[in-house]
Design a protein that fits this description.
The protein is built from four helices and no strands. The protein is mostly helical. The chain has two domains: 73 residues, no CATH class; 36 residues, no CATH class. The longest helix has 19 residues. The radius of gyration is 17 Å and the shape is globular.
Length: 111
């Protein structure tokens, strides 16, 4: 659930500070159509990872790698709204939704 993601983000902020928290986009950034074909392909991927010994503990072919109530094109906007409703500033939200990655990459790529 989206609310769980927000709680996780807040925990990370409490642990390491707002300058060190960000949402990675190495997974799905566009909505996923959960079709019968998708379900079959995903289940097979889980089986393959288990066979290779690289699956996550408790990985389940019926638990997908996206948050169902954020499976929409506006998911980053929705996270921003949820963070704002919990009292996070625009500056903090901008850092979490990409600003921190931009800062770190800019520092790393300086010549």
């Amino acid at each position: 659930m989206a609310a769980d993601l927000v709680l996780h983000i807040e925990h990370a902020i409490n642990v390491c500070g707002e300058d060190h928290v960000g949402l990675g986009t190495d997974g799905y950034i566009t909505p996923v159509a959960v079709t019968p074909e998708y379900k079959k392909t995903f289940a097979q991927e889980v089986i393959t990872r288990r066979q290779l010994g690289i699956s996550a503990p408790g990985e389940d072919p019926n638990v997908y790698l996206f948050i169902p109530d954020l499976n929409s094109p506006d998911h980053f906007n929705r996270v921003a709204v949820l963070l704002s409703r919990r009292g996070h500033s625009d500056t903090q939200i901008e850092k979490i939704l990409g600003g921190n990655f931009e800062r770190i990459l800019s520092e790393a790529w300086k010549t």
